[in-house]
Amino acid sequence: MCIIFFKFDPHPVSKNAYRFILAANRDEFYHRPAKLADFWGSNNEVLSGLDMEEGKEGGTWLGISMRGKLGALTNYLQPQQNREARGRGKLVSHFLTADMDSLSYLKKVSAEGHLYNGFNLIAADLSTTKGDVVCYYGNRGDPEPIVLTPGTYGLSNALLETPWRKLCFGKQLFMDVVEQSQTLPKDAFVAKLLDVLSNEEAQLPDPAIEDQGQEYVRPILNKYAAVCVRGSNYGTRTNTIILVDADGQVTFTERSMLDKDPSCWETTTHEFMLQS
């Protein structure tokens, strides 16, 4: 289970406003190996964490490039997985390094969507000069990707904006904090967004998750029904905040669990200017 909240406004009225704000949780087995977020690629132009699971090395769930390409992935909750399906993590890393705009890339992916287990993919081109474009495709939804209109969105392990209770609850928390973005120092704003991602209040009952997950999810629904998932060997391992201001300054903050220990975390921040 994972969760992403984001808001974008390519032309904010105030010079102090952020034109793109994202807050995301990666939920995964604690033992699954991964690298913490850092720059990589031929010219260190991509910033992301990396999956290091054997056979899936180099995939990622969320990243951004110096050129303003941003990709984010969640899996679609389905009781039965096709073990012969293609790995989904490369969908983000391929976009971050491809010489292809977001909509064209998602159209290419949608033509092969049946080859994967269920997923949702956000692809964005963040350009200070041309304007920001954010697109979405889910291979369990409409056959064609869509260009999103400016606004606030929530995505978990169903299609974009599916009203799971934890998604609606977390999105409201996110919007409440975003309303304070122009009055808070950046560090305080990031800290409040991390608080949203750390909320462990289970939002029950939730028939929508039960219906989609069926017998697979019902025995452990109380663990999955919060923004922050906390199980004995599976749960929220990474919080990520991405801010892009009107000038193209990117602030990427990652809070990561260390040593498979839910009480031990490390926070790092990377900052750079988008290359026009």
From TrEMBL:
Annotated InterPro entries: TANGO2
One of the protein's GO biological processes: Golgi organization
Assigned GO CC terms: cytosol; Golgi apparatus; mitochondrion
One Pfam family here: TANGO2
Highest taxon listed in the record's lineage: Eukaryota
Name the UniProt record assigns to this protein: Transport and Golgi organization protein 2 homolog isoform X1
Gene from which this protein is expressed: Tango2
